[in-house]
Amino acid sequence: PLRQERAGAVLTLTLDRPAVLNSFTTDLLRALFLALDAAAEDASVRCVVLTGAGRAFCAGQDLADPAVAPQSDIGHLLAHFYRPMLLRLRSMPVPVIAAVNGVAAGAGANLALACDLVVAARSASFIQAFSKIGLVPDCGGTWLLPRAVGRAKALGLAMLGDRLPAQEAERIGLIWRCVDDAELAGEVGALAARLAAMPTRALVETRRAFDAAQQTDLAGALDHEQALQRELGFAHDYQEGVAAFMARRAPSFSDR
Ligand code: LHQ
Fold first, then answer.
1. 8 and 133 both lie in a single domain
2. Nearest one of 132, 178, 126, 135 to 153, comparing CA atoms
3. Residue 102 carries which DSSP code?
4. Which Gene3D superfamilies does the UniProt record give (predicted)?
5. DSSP 53
């Protein structure tokens, strides 16, 4: 259910159940977790791209899967499949791009939004579909949405469950970019190659510091920045970055 392709230092993971809009079964969730985990361990991977096969990105949980039949404990599924996958994604040691090629609904929408950079095709859309079947946003949606777009927009999106077109998602700051459909693959490929050539550790510490800063005051954030800067200041990539700048040459980063 999951396709993996390598191009240089970029690993592309494609959710591949197009007949049911790449919706999640426990098999797909497990495969995604394992692929992310293997990429995290593989020092030759410097950027991960997540996308969907066919016309959709991901329609969230496969509602036909017996594992989520009404009157069964769906909390169990969250605890054992969604939670580890989402935490694995969010703690990747490399930047992760979501290439949202089509509709992203429910857990599929919040999976995309949990990535570091979200690039969506103009025909794509985001749907907080949960309320329409009597559930609340999961995959970190309750944490991320109000922080990303503010409480008013977040509640409107989550309560109404309307389709949010990619262009509007870009306008309200929910995603990085909306691009023409024909340009999605090219734009994401270029972006991934660019990120893969950058100082990986600095990029990942930036994500972690942003997340950590949600729970601290300014003084706490300054302390954290100081500790990180101190650590990175001793690392190879800083030395290389400064040397390359001084010599007016292209840097060659390698820390991960
Ligand atoms: C699907 C699905 C799908 C199965 C399309 N399942 N077949 C976590 C843990 C535990 C429990 C529950 O939830 C969660 C988190 C969640 O993700 S909850 C939210 C679950 N997702 C949804 O409610 C979205 C359901 N899908 C839709 O609303 C529509 O399919 C969207 C708006 C995504 C796309 O609409 P269309 O472009 O009109 O496509 P379609 O509806 O015709 O779908 C195409 C096929 O895919 C169709 O099958 P068919 O045999 O008729 O061709 C759908 O049944 C199937 N499909 N989503 N989630």
1. yes
2. 126
3. S
4. 2-enoyl-CoA Hydratase, Chain A, domain 1, Lyase 2-enoyl-coa Hydratase, Chain A, domain 2
5. S
Ramachandran sector of residue 173 (left: φ over 0; alpha: ψ -120 to 50; beta: rest): left
Residues 177-209: pLDDT tens digits? 999 999 999 999 999 999 999 999 999 999 999
Please count the structural domains in the chain.
2
Cβ of 63 below 6 Å from ligand 1: yes
Per-residue DSSP letter, 24: B
208 C-alpha to ligand 1 centroid (Å): 32
Q: Which helix (H) or strand (E) holds 85?
A: helix 83-90
Q: Are residues 96 and 135 in the same domain?
A: yes
139 lies in the same domain as 219: no
Distance from Cα 160 to the centre of ligand 1, integer Å? 17
CA dihedral 75, 81, 86, 88 (to 10 degrees): 140
The ipTM, to two decimals, is 0.98
CA distance 151 to 157: 10
Same-domain check for residues 175 and 204? no
| 134 three-state secondary structure | coil
Closest CA relative to residue 25, chosen from 103, 70, 77, 73: 77
Ligand 1 atom with the shortest distance to the CA of 78:
9
> Which residue range(s) make up the domain with 222?
200-247
Other beta carbons within 10 angstroms of residue 225's beta carbon come to 13
Which of 94, 92, 78 shows the shortest CA–CA distance to 140? 78
